[in-house]
Amino acid sequence: MELKEYWSDKHHSRDFKLIRIGFVAVRFRWLVTLLIIGIPGWVAMDWWLLDSAHFKLLWKVRLMTGVMLTPLLPLSYLCKLNRHWMVMSLFALLFILLSFNLVSLWSFRDVAVMPAGYVAFPYFLLALLAVLPLPIRSGLRVAVTVIVAVLATDYWLDSHTLDNGALFDRVWLLLCFSLAMLWVQTGQLRMLMDLYRESTRDPLTGLMNRRLFMPQLAAVRHASTDEQPYTLMLFDLDKFKRINDQHGHLMGDEVLASVATTLVDILGSEAMVARYGGEEFMILLPGTRLEQGVRQAETLRLAVESQPVKSPLDDSEVMVTISAGVVEGHRDSDMTELLSQVDKALYEAKSQGRNCVVAHEPLITGATSD
Predict the structure, then answer these.
(1) pLDDT at 297 exceeding the cut of 90
(2) If we measure between CA atoms, which residue out of 228, 237, 304 comes closest to residue 275?
(3) Inter-CA distances, 271 with 21, 132, 172, 221, 274, Å
(4) The Cα angle at residue 230 between residues 226 and 236, in degrees rounded to 5
(5) What confidence score (pLDDT) does residue 161 get?
(6) Is the pLDDT confidence value at 281 over 90?
(7) Terminal Cα distance for the chain, rounded
(8) Over 70: is that where the pLDDT of 10 sits?
(9) What percent of the chain shows pLDDT beyond 90?
């Protein structure tokens, strides 16, 4: 996992963003549920510890806070669908809890020593927010919001002065809890990313697997238009079984990894490249027409053919060629039919002697090498 992936979700794939937001939404829901039960439920401790004047105010504040938190539960289901809903919900939660903290501390303004539980509430809040796997930038925004709100509350309650000996300890503790929150959040983000990659990436080539590729294809199909179709390519390594039989499976693995690297290097980040199964690679090019796809496929075919793969055991080399089927897709294309068409085009390329590119309707055939 690269450092930039820890810093911001802008560097995450679209699929992982949805998975992470869904994960955050579930934890957010449990967190809100805990607070809805815990904050009003603490009224029993207030009744036991506080005098009647403070208790009469705080039980109403606690009940009102629980009521204000309740709409966040249905909102958490919308969070799974949209990052902006998630951000809005999180800061709504912060606003409600920091307002509760403000009113609670204000109610003790005439008391020489405030109850420790109310003074410690901001630290408890930062500890609770550590359960969310947020990138560092998002976590910093949360931490800064809490710190500024807490210091502003202290400034207001201290009659616009902060020249007291407790200020340094307050800031120091807030920073320590904020760093701990960021540390835990980053660790959870890494764990989630590792699990995601294990389940969606091919361990040999590092490419996405079929499990990840199919939702990507569905998303591109949904976003396409008549003016912006997409191209689907299916590549197959020619006579790959012979390579395994004659040179061993280590050489076969090296060939697969080398071809995958070539495909990614030439296509760049816009293309979606997957190891579809065995020695087959599927490529999705959003915003391209059939003719463009065929040219790209031909470029890839020539690149693979021109780069012999060196054995990991000795200095021997193996020449590798690929055959490809290409098809153009649209928003109304049936997924099953689309995959069937590209598979038929690949079969036609194999039938024509391999090492060529064939497109499904209209038929376009690339040059064949002996």
Answers:
(1) yes
(2) 237
(3) 24, 31, 48, 14, 10
(4) 150
(5) 56
(6) yes
(7) 43
(8) yes
(9) 61
Residue range 210-365, CATH number? 3.30.70.270
Spatial separation of the C-alpha atoms in residues 308 and 325, rounded to whole Å: 22
Q: What angle do CA 318, 321, 325 make, to 5 degrees?
A: 160
> Per the structure block, which two tokens stand in for 185?
């959040």
CA distance 344 to 323: 12
Alpha-carbon torsion, ordered 32, 33, 37, 38, to 10 deg:
-50
Residue 287 CA to residue 295 CA, distance in Å, equals 14
R_g (Cα) of the chain, nearest Å = 29
CB 363 within 8 A of CB 369: no
For residue 201, what are its two tokens? Answer: 């990436």
Which residue shows structure tokens 């609770």? 128
272-277, strands of its sheet edge to edge: 272-277, 280-286, 230-237, 322-329, 357-359, 364-365
Question: How long, in residues, is the chain?
Answer: 370
pLDDT classification of 290: cutoffs 50, 70, 90: very high
pLDDT reading at 365 higher than 50? no
Spatial distance between the Cα atoms of 4 and 36, rounded to a whole number of angstroms: 36
Q: CB of 100 within 8 A of CB of 39?
A: yes
Q: Is the dihedral of CA 217, 219, 223, 225 positive or negative?
A: positive
What is the three-state SS of the chain? CCHHHHHCHHHCCHHHHHHHHHHHHHHHHHHHHHHHHHHHHCHHHHHHHCCHHHHHHHHHHHHHHHHHHCCHHHHHHHHCCCHHHHHHHHHHHHHHHHHHHHHHHHHCCCCCCCCHHHHCHHHHHHHHHCCCCCCHHHHHHHHHHHHHHHHHHHHHHCCCCCCCCHHHHHHHHHHHHHHHHHHHHHHHHHHHHHHHHHHHECCCCCCECHHHHHHHHHHHHHHCCCCCCEEEEEEEECCHHHHHHHHCHHHHHHHHHHHHHHHHHHHCCCCEEEEEECCEEEEEEECCCHHHHHHHHHHHHHHHHCCCEECCCCCCEECCCEEEEEEEECCCCCHHHHHHHHHHHHHHHHHCCCCCEEECCCCEECCCCC
Give backbone dihedrals phi and psi of 285, rounded to 5 degrees, phi first.
-115, 100
